[in-house]
Write the structure tokens for this entry.
Amino acid sequence: MWGITFADLRYRYRQFLIAVIGAGLVLAMALLMAGLAGGFTTEIDQTVGGVGAQSWVLSDNAHGSIAGAQVFPQSVAAVIAREPGVTKASPLVILLQQSLRIGTGAKNTATKNVEVFGVQPGGLGDPAVTAGKPLSGPGQVVVDVGAGVGPGTEVTVGAMPLRVVGQVTGRTMLAGVPIIYMPLADAQALALGGRPLITAVVTRGVPASVPAGLSVSSNAQIEQSVLNNLAGAIATLVNAKAIMWLVAAVIVGSLLYVSALQRVRDFAVIKALGSSSLALFGSLALQAVVIALLAAAFGMIICNFMVGLFKQPIAIPASAFATLPLIAVAVGLVASLAALRRVTGADPAMAFSG
């Protein structure tokens, strides 16, 4: 029976190849959906981890979210720096959804949405550049490579002209929006009227206490607060991944159903020779599993070439690759049910009809 199974695979290889490619593309998209969902976590891990802090002090009104943009006096940073357990404390100004214009005047070429981190040069949050130079004075910015501008480029944020002096990688938020870093005073002038206000104090060590109206959050809590804002998008991607599995099963199942229609007389002959319906169904199920596993292997390969189609970070977890073969087996078994009726309904008497 197994010999007949693989002989049929060879005989109908063109049909099966189409199913492998079609289902493989769908399974590749399922992997990419997992990667997009994982990318949300990876980007915020990199961004928060890149600050180099152990704790974040925010206004109580921010409810643990750096997207809250709730301000308080910059002088609080010096108070927190003197707290037991704190070895370093730096103020931050975080401004979300700012507009970056590339070029100046008639040379303006493009506009991008960015997130702004106002930092003290040399303090916590000041990024280690991968190209160019770090921040050293006013009128400068360091940008994530996703902004598409290199060192020496003139840019404008709001009405403030700035020059890009350095680049970083892996510093994005909210589905790939690049972060730009500028001196704290520039960020205050940009959005806070130049007043000595900040939206966070980041520390090495955990302060024993903080002034009234403020609260302490860990890196993990900050990351989770950002992910909570993306919960709907993440759930959508997870649901889309499940739909991709179903579509792959439909592709394989459709092929097996058509194949079973073409082989009804073959089934009748095999039954007349003593094979059971269960054995025939097992043969088709094996075909479906082989096709699904080949499609999974193709999907694992092709998804690496499809990553560039997406602008936001993609981080396909290793678990997705590890579980895909198991999912492929399940897809194959479900798909094989499409041909069950044709197998069980084959009449051995057809083997002797004209």
